[in-house]
Amino acid sequence: QVQLVESGGGLVQPGGSLRLSCAASGSIFSIPAMGWYRQAPGKQRELVALISSVGTTNYADNVKGRFTISRDNAKNTVYLQMSSLKPEDTAVYYCKTVARSSAAPYPVDYWGQGTQVTVSS
Predict the structure, then answer these.
(1) DSSP label at 60?
(2) N or C: which end of the chain has fewer CB within 10 A?
(3) What are phi and psi of 117, to 5 degrees?
(4) pLDDT tens, position by position, 28-62
């Protein structure tokens, strides 16, 4: 099976920075893509950033230039460096991994438990 463990959330002042981490473990064969999503109270979950196994990235327009997604394939870990944080970035951030493992003969989506990011003065 595949399990994701997230860390790095917390409270930060507007303009500050945080770095989120998400490590995948289990009987993993490959991870074609990893990404970060977020959900604020009363709002739908939205895509923040994605990264493929070869390093290609995709960002939501409202985080471009402020957030950077990266991954360490050897550690099956994805990171989200967040800078110039705004109050509207406040949300629960979820890690998602698209992985091939012994659990199924096809790629399956796995979600982390979520980590709270609060941007407030």
Answers:
(1) -
(2) C
(3) -120, 120
(4) 999 999 999 999 999 999 999 999 999 999 999 99
